[in-house]
Amino acid sequence: MKKIQGYSVKLSQSPAFGTISQGMGGTMGLIMIGAVVQIICAIGGMLFGWKAGDPLYDILYMPYELTMGLLALFMSFTLAYTYAKRLGVKAQIQSGFTSMVCFILVCSPLISATKDGGVTIRALNVSALGANGIFVAILIGLLSVRITKFAVDHNWVIRMPDVVPEGILNSFNSIIPSGLNILLWYGISLLISHFTDGAMTLGTVITTVIATPLSYFVSPLGMVVIVVLFSLSWFFGLHGGSIVFTAIMPIYLAAYATNAELAAAGEPLVFNPVFLYGCVSWLGGAGNTLPLCVMGLKSKSKQISAVAKASLVPGLFNINEPVIFGFPIMYNPVLLIPFVLNSLVVMAFMYIAYKFNLMGLPHILIMTTLPIGLQQFMASLDWRNIVFCFLMFPVVFLIYYPFFKIYEKQCLAREAAEAAELGEE
């Protein structure tokens, strides 16, 4: 643990990794808005039967689409802005806008479509600008600023007289670096589009390369690999659910359909290893982070306490983006170990429970966000699944606890150093 702590300190001192943490923190307000909207819609679905397509549901869900639905786009700006500031690049706002433009070019270039009547329109695929594009946003946010800094350091800028105001000077100085970035990233986008006949973008290429092999791992031991990759994806800024679930979704849907038919016929349900995938979000979303929120409520660290308080209610509804981006867990090697380990332990208990008929097998496909316990009950209509859910809480709590204390100690030391520095000033 001491070695992990030392490595974590060195990693956190890196400008790039510090930028990722701070840049993601800049989107916390948007994440919280999206989480609240999800909770409201989930409650409405339970109480009033709201679902996608209903006018009221769609109206209430719109703020989520414009916050979490565009999260990677906003993050591409905050990352580039923060990194430019850390590297001493003066054109910080321009760097943020350049990153946003490049991100759109590679993740969601304009597509043409012909409507009835022969009218051709050009539009963005906004679904690629949300959580699915976070990894690409990080990649472009960091590399675009490095390209800008390289150009500025080598005087690839438009010279202006010294009397020109700094804001205007920075704008002119960023023209050539921004142009280089756009040429590079748009060139990559065009190459990918050319070789895939317009079927793929940089974001989908990355997702496909990672996701394709996963479809061959649906077995009890193979699910271990899938769960580990799911957790590592989140750690590196990839949307683990989008990558992993996309790969196993056909098998997942088929397993539920099989059990649904058996249940309708009054026949015994059958176990499929793909059901073990539920271990990754049994308690509070990806990585079962609700126990982490609970232990953070009494933390002496201001950062941890604030994030835990803001994340608790969303966590009860299995929404944990505030934890992933707020603690953060992404690019945090101390919390990575329990983040991966607890899902594997829960999966082992799930396998035993299914094999010895201690839990009900799922047969109702739930593809929406529901509160902890209710989610497991609705999928199986078996009260034992609720009991199992709460039995896993202390198990996951104990796995997170020692690593949480290490991270808390780091946060307290950093906060004390920042307080001392402000006192000196």
Keywords:
2 strands; two-stranded antiparallel sheet; 2 domains
What does this structure look like?
The protein is mainly alpha-helical. It has two domains: 18-215, no CATH class; 217-419, no CATH class. The protein has helices at residues 2-12, 15-25, 28-48, 55-67, 71-87, 92-107, 134-153, 166-173, 175-195, 202-211, 220-235, 240-264, 290-296, 302-316, 321-326, 333-355, 374-380, 383-424, and strands at residues 111-114, 120-123. It has a two-stranded antiparallel ribbon. β1 (111-114) and β2 form a beta hairpin. α13 (290-296) packs across α18. The longest helix has 42 residues, at 383-424. The radius of gyration is 23 Å and the shape is globular. The two termini are 35 Å apart. The relative contact order is 0.10.
What shape does the CA trace take? globular
Fraction of helical residues: 55-70%
Low-confidence runs: none
Strand content: under 5%
Largest sheet: 2 strands, antiparallel
Order of helices and strands: HHHHHHEEHHHHHHHHHHHH
Alpha-carbon distance between the two ends: 35 Å
Count of individual helical segments: 18
Residue-averaged pLDDT, rounded?
82
Instruction: Quickly give the structural class.
Output: mainly alpha
Number of distinct beta strands: 2
Cross-sheet strand order for the largest sheet: 1-2
Radius of gyration: 23 Å
Tally of structural domains: 2
